[in-house]
Write a sequence for this structure.
């Protein structure tokens, strides 16, 4: 892991776009190294792996943890207790459960709703039309703050196809008056910036390749 990679990418990104350093598969020591040079937001996709690192790093109060993985129903309470942001809420049922448990826990997680703009059977996510239909109902849910939408493009698209899908996400977020779009990973971050991403989720570009 080479901290120069992080600084290099940081310098290329406009200051209104946030970097979420995706630390899944990397050690707490790697997180510390990047944190020491100014990165505060870290993303993890598996609860147990994340929780172990959170315990080791608990004295680093300025770290904000983001959950970006598939949400198992039996982990919702723990996710709410230990993460400030949840990027990967992919169904209305889970959103209801998150709201109910957040009330019990007196928490108010910041949430991005995962939306699917292409037919990718390997990914979860709201159908955009369904999300629009349910939007009123969603806005009444207590103890959650929806700040935006999140999307993951299918692998292997060319640059223009990535841009088209990201623009759909930005445009839906705008129509719902949501400021955030969590989109763009190590392979497609440039298109995501062009389309109006506010959170790039960068793993290998920041930390190096996962072993
Ligand atoms: C792993 C992961 C990333 C980061 O992937 P890289 O290609 O390493 O940048 C981003 N978002 C999600 C949801 C992930 O699971």
């Amino acid at each position: 892991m080479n901290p120069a990679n992080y600084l290099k990418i940081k310098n290329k990104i406009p200051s209104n776009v946030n970097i979420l350093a995706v630390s899944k598969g990397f050690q707490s020591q790697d997180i510390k190294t990047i944190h020491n040079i100014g990165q505060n937001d870290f993303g993890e996709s598996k609860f147990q792996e994340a929780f172990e690192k959170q315990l080791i790093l608990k004295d680093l109060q300025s770290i904000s943890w983001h959950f970006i993985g598939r949400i198992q129903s039996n982990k919702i309470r723990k996710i709410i207790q230990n993460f400030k942001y949840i990027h990967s809420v992919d169904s209305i049922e889970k959103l209801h459960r998150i709201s109910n448990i957040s009330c019990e826990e007196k928490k108010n997680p910041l949430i991005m709703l995962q939306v699917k703009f292409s037919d990718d059977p390997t990914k979860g996510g709201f159908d955009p039309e369904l999300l629009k239909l349910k939007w009123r109902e969603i806005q009444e849910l207590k103890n959650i703050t929806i700040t935006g939408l999140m999307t993951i493009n299918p692998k292997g698209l060319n640059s223009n196809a990535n841009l088209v899908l990201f623009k759909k996400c930005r445009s839906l977020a705008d129509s719902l008056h949501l400021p955030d779009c969590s989109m763009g990973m190590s392979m497609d971050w440039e298109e995501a910036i062009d389309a109006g991403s506010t959170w790039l989720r960068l793993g290998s570009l920041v930390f190096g390749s996962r072993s």
In short: The chain has nine helices and eight strands.
